[in-house]
């Protein structure tokens, strides 16, 4: 009988030596498998949302202007950012010329009163002498007309005095409502004219969100719907729809939805923010955000397969809320999903399951 050749014998020996090494490597790989947590998707009732974006703007602005002209500003009592109350003094104008005109008008009233007193005396005497014929009819008519003229003159002078008092009151410019001053053009020493804007303020410090939405959602948006705004500093702001704009832009096919913010929330106006308007609720199959793995712009999750191995499954995502993501397609309610550590996994990796919820 022929003996095996030396190369064949060497191959048998090498295989016998490598077999324990392969088993050891396999056991090591099994021992170093990634430990993951798994859970089944949750069924939630989430509201359908309409994405929107727009500017935070004042609910209403008030313009504080001068009602008189030719007077100099003597005091500016507030500045930009000042919180003011209705009736609070903001600016004072010079009063010297107004007070002089007021005193002049008061003197004119005294003169008118004296003229009226004289005319009234002549008219009374004419009435008494009319039956006797001591005065001609022409003279009697003249005295009576003088009385009427003096009465009208006194009324005119009194009206002029009221006008001077109003002008004096207008030298003190006050806030028309509670609010916060957002701009100031009043400068100490400046001579103002009627209608000159001195301040601009946000009434009651109320800021609203003027959100632009696609016109196709308008039929489903109504007053009172809840709104969630992605506010500054990553703080969400809750609001409610106050008004749906009556027109649609012909350029963008978008409409403005006015969203009222809570009274205790006062973000800065002029910021551009995004958010969502909540419509009716509908079921949503959700997983934690940590379960979603992004690769090449595509969303995946890892699900439990056979023999403690995982499978990478492509999914379509939808709404997001409180750290959870809606799964629109790709898995069902019975799937077991890796909740964390998916970024370190590949398809068909061996894992150790730490917990299944």
Structure notes:
Helix 2 runs antiparallel to helix 3 (137-169). The chain is of the alpha+beta class and 357 residues long. It has helices at 6-31, 96-129, 137-169; strands at residues 34-39, 42-58, 61-65, 71-76, 83-84, 89-93, 172-174, 179-184, 191-192, 197-203, 207-214, 226-230, 236-248, 254-260, 272-288, 293-295, 298-304, 310-314, 316-321, 324-329, 337-338, 351-356. It has three helices and 22 strands. The strands form five sheets. The protein has a six-stranded antiparallel beta barrel. The chain folds into four domains: 32-46 and 284-356, conserved putative lor/sdh protein from methanococcus maripaludis s2 fold, CATH 2.40.420.20; 49-59 and 205-279, Elongation Factor Tu (Ef-tu), domain 3 (Beta Barrel), CATH 2.40.30.170; 64-94 and 171-204, OB fold (Dihydrolipoamide Acetyltransferase, E2P) (Beta Barrel); 99-168, Helix Hairpins (Orthogonal Bundle), CATH 1.10.287. Belongs to the membrane fusion protein (MFP) (TC 8.A.1) family. Residues 284-351 form the YknX-like C-terminal permuted SH3-like domain. Keywords: Coiled coil, Signal.
Could you outline the blueprint of secondary structure elements for this entry?
Blueprint: H1 6-31, E1 34-39, E2 42-58, E3 61-65, E4 71-76, E5 83-84, E6 89-93, H2 96-129, H3 137-169, E7 172-174, E8 179-184, E9 191-192, E10 197-203, E11 207-214, E12 226-230, E13 236-248, E14 254-260, E15 272-288, E16 293-295, E17 298-304, E18 310-314, E19 316-321, E20 324-329, E21 337-338, E22 351-356
Parallel strand pairs: 1-22
Antiparallel strand pairs: 1-21, 2-11, 2-15, 3-10, 4-6, 4-9, 5-8, 6-7, 8-10, 11-14, 12-13, 12-15, 13-14, 15-20, 16-17, 17-18, 19-20
Helix pairs in contact: 2-3
């Amino acid at each position: 009988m022929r003996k095996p050749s030396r190369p064949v014998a060497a191959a048998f020996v090498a295989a016998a030596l490598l077999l324990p090494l392969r088993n050891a490597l396999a056991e090591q790989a099994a021992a170093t498998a990634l430990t993951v947590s798994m859970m089944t998707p949750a069924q939630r009732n989430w509201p359908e949302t309409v994405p929107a974006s727009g500017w935070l703007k004042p609910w209403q602005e008030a313009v504080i202007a001068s009602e008189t002209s030719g007077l100099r500003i003597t005091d500016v009592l507030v500045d930009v950012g000042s919180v003011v109350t209705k009736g609070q003094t903001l600016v004072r104008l010079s009063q010297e010329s107004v007070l002089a005109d007021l005193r002049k008008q008061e003197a004119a009233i005294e003169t008118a009163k004296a003229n009226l007193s004289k005319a009234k005396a002549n008219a009374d005497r004419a009435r008494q002498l009319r039956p006797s014929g001591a005065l001609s009819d022409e003279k009697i008519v003249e005295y009576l007309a003088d009385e009427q003229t003096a009465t009208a003159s006194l009324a005119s002078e009194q009206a002029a005095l009221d006008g001077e008092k109003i002008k004096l009151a207008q030298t003190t410019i006050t806030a028309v409502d509670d609010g916060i001053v957002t701009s100031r053009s009043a400068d100490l020493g400046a001579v103002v004219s009627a209608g000159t804007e001195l301040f601009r303020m946000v009434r009651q410090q109320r800021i609203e969100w003027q959100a632009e939405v696609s016109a196709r959602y308008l039929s489903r948006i109504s007053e009172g719907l809840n709104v969630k705004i992605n506010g500054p500093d990553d703080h969400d702001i809750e609001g409610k729809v106050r008004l749906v704009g009556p027109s649609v832009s012909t350029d963008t096919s978008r409409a403005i939805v006015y969203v009222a913010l809570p009274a205790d929330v006062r973000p800065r106006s002029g910021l551009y923010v995004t958010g969502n308007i909540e419509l009716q609720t509908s079921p949503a199959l959700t997983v934690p955000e940590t379960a979603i793995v992004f690769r090449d712009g595509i969303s995946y999750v890892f699900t439990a397969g056979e023999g403690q191995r995982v499978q990478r499954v492509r999914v379509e995502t939808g709404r997001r809320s409180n750290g959870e993501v809606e799964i629109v397609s790709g898995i069902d309610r019975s799937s077991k999903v890796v909740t964390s550590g998916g970024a370190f996994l590949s398809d068909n990796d061996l894992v150790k399951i730490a917990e299944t919820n």
